[in-house]
């Protein structure tokens, strides 16, 4: 893999081939004493040089995971697969089920700064319960019916109209798919698009779960630095030309974890680059409505005329997390493939959830509540920023979203701070797990949206005080 000047590189290519082979062995694709593909065959499959595959095989051989038979080839050794067998000889790979963010979220903490969700007390819960009752009156048989695989017709028509009016997205209801949250949408897209050793451009830093999903598919991740000014488009074009990526996964509006927003002029040029190099842009947009001053630029999808953008609009963060409603917009033939992938995943998002969301989201009262919610979130953000300023920590104030991306002072290790914080019932996200290269060890993501104002201030004071003892 050639170096692009000024671009941080991921693992050496032969190590990525090594990971791919080992992962497939652990999944049970190749078992003990099975013959592995020849160097030539595997190089052709993964579209790499034969020497790259040879170096990967040699490393596996040195570690005892494969063995060589003279003039016959490479075979899987007993140490090359997991020792813990399940029923019928199946294997479970720890690599395939990695989810660092989920591990953090399972930790119980009083001062919860790792969850990028809204404080439930800021949501109109009584109002939502009224709509639940209304839905049962309007659709008395709703519990006895499946939704269509693509999603409820009424909901898709309502959302397509909403996107046309508010985001200038030219799409029909047939170009929308309803999924059970954005994470499912990302997973379906990865299953549809990616094969082992395919290249994915991904922001640095980024949403860690997306990285876990792409790695599970065996993809190579190439980092693209995101800054308060957006991307270096010269770098992006060089990466597209050099690596011919299958897709570029991005979160350009109130970015997770940094809060940065990519300017409108870059969005239009990114779509042009995608068309030129046939690179699918996967635009994840869960925080668009959570802005503090002016509305953010239009989605990249608004500039797409050739079908090279898939737009993921999730409502789980701030409307009704329990409903898990997300809309995916794309053109055919991508839509047809996504519908097939969705049918294999769960055969359709629950009908009841969709009907509740339909009447809840489109109501004038909820739209008015969003204005109040933005004010409340800005107050939360300012409380966190006040405590960070007193401690001398560094960050760039976001114009929206739910997170602050914070540089720790001095040489404090985020990993050490995290371990000590958990002892005091404080949680946050270490920046290392958001980095495709795993090197951002002095950065952390702090979510200001979940804790109430009292716990937010008290928890931040405890966290900054703890850092001074390290």
From TrEMBL:
<keyword id="KW-0808">Transferase</keyword>
<keyword id="KW-0805">Transcription regulation</keyword>
<dbReference type="Pfam" id="PF00392">
    <property type="entry name" value="GntR"/>
</dbReference>
<feature type="domain" description="HTH gntR-type">
    <location>
        <begin position="11"/>
        <end position="79"/>
    </location>
</feature>
<keyword id="KW-0804">Transcription</keyword>
<dbReference type="InterPro" id="IPR036390">
    <property type="entry name" value="WH_DNA-bd_sf"/>
</dbReference>
<dbReference type="InterPro" id="IPR000524">
    <property type="entry name" value="Tscrpt_reg_HTH_GntR"/>
</dbReference>
<protein>
    <submittedName>
        <fullName>GntR family transcriptional regulator</fullName>
    </submittedName>
</protein>
<dbReference type="GO" id="GO:0003677">
    <property type="term" value="F:DNA binding"/>
</dbReference>
<dbReference type="GO" id="GO:0030170">
    <property type="term" value="F:pyridoxal phosphate binding"/>
</dbReference>
<dbReference type="InterPro" id="IPR004839">
    <property type="entry name" value="Aminotransferase_I/II_large"/>
</dbReference>
<keyword id="KW-0238">DNA-binding</keyword>
<comment type="similarity">
    <text>In the C-terminal section; belongs to the class-I pyridoxal-phosphate-dependent aminotransferase family.</text>
</comment>
<dbReference type="Pfam" id="PF00155">
    <property type="entry name" value="Aminotran_1_2"/>
</dbReference>
<dbReference type="GO" id="GO:0008483">
    <property type="term" value="F:transaminase activity"/>
</dbReference>
<dbReference type="InterPro" id="IPR051446">
    <property type="entry name" value="HTH_trans_reg/aminotransferase"/>
</dbReference>
<dbReference type="InterPro" id="IPR015422">
    <property type="entry name" value="PyrdxlP-dep_Trfase_small"/>
</dbReference>
<keyword id="KW-0032">Aminotransferase</keyword>
<dbReference type="InterPro" id="IPR015424">
    <property type="entry name" value="PyrdxlP-dep_Trfase"/>
</dbReference>
<dbReference type="InterPro" id="IPR015421">
    <property type="entry name" value="PyrdxlP-dep_Trfase_major"/>
</dbReference>
<dbReference type="InterPro" id="IPR036388">
    <property type="entry name" value="WH-like_DNA-bd_sf"/>
</dbReference>
<dbReference type="GO" id="GO:0003700">
    <property type="term" value="F:DNA-binding transcription factor activity"/>
</dbReference>
<keyword id="KW-0663">Pyridoxal phosphate</keyword>
């Amino acid at each position: 893999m050639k170096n692009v000047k000024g671009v941080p590189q991921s693992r050496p290519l032969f190590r990525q081939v090594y990971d791919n082979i080992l992962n497939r062995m652990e999944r049970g694709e190749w078992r003990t004493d099975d013959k592995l593909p020849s160097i030539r065959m595997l190089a052709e499959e993964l579209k790499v040089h034969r020497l790259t595959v040879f170096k990967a095989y040699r490393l596996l051989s040195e570690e005892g995971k494969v063995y060589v038979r003279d003039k016959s080839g490479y075979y899987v050794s007993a140490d090359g697969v997991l020792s813990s067998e399940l029923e019928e000889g199946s294997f479970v790979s720890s690599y395939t089920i990695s989810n660092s963010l989920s591990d953090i979220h399972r930790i119980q903490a009083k001062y919860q700064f790792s969850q990028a969700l809204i404080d439930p007390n800021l949501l109109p819960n009584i109002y939502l319960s009224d709509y639940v009752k209304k839905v049962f009156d309007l659709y008395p048989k709703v519990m006895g019916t499946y939704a269509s695989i693509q999603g409820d017709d009424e909901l898709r028509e309502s959302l397509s109209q909403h996107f046309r009016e508010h985001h200038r997205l030219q799409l029909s209801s047939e170009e929308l798919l309803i999924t059970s949250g954005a994470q499912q949408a990302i997973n379906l897209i990865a299953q549809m698009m990616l094969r082992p050793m395919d290249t994915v451009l991904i922001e640095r830093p980024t949403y860690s779960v997306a990285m876990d999903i792409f790695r599970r598919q065996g993809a190579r991740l190439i980092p693209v630095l995101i800054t308060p000014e957006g991307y270096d488009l010269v770098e992006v074009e060089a990466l597209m030309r050099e690596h011919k990526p299958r897709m570029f996964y991005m979160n350009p509006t109130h970015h997770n974890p940094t809060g940065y927003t990519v300017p409108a002029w870059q969005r239009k040029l990114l779509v042009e680059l995608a068309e030129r190099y046939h690179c699918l842009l996967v635009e994840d947009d869960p925080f668009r409505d959570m802005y503090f001053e002016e509305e953010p630029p239009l989605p990249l999808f608004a500039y797409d005329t050739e079908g090279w953008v898939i737009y993921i609009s999730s409502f789980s963060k701030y409307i009704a997390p329990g409903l898990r409603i997300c809309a995916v917009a794309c053109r055919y033939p991508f839509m047809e493939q996504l519908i097939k992938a969705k049918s294999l995943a769960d055969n359709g998002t629950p009908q009841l959830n969709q009907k509740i969301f339909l009447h809840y989201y489109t109501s004038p009262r909820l739209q008015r509540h969003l204005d109040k919610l933005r004010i409340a979130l800005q107050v939360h953000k300012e409380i966190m920023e006040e405590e960070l300023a007193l401690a001398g920590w560094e960050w760039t104030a976001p114009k929206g979203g739910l997170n602050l991306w914070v540089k720790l002072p001095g040489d404090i290790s985020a990993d050490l701070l995290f371990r000590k914080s958990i002892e005091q019932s404080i949680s946050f996200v270490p920046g290392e797990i958001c980095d495709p290269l795993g090197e951002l060890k002095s950065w952390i993501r702090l979510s200001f949206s979940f804790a109430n104002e009292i716990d937010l201030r008290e928890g931040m004071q405890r966290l900054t005080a703890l850092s001074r003892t390290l």
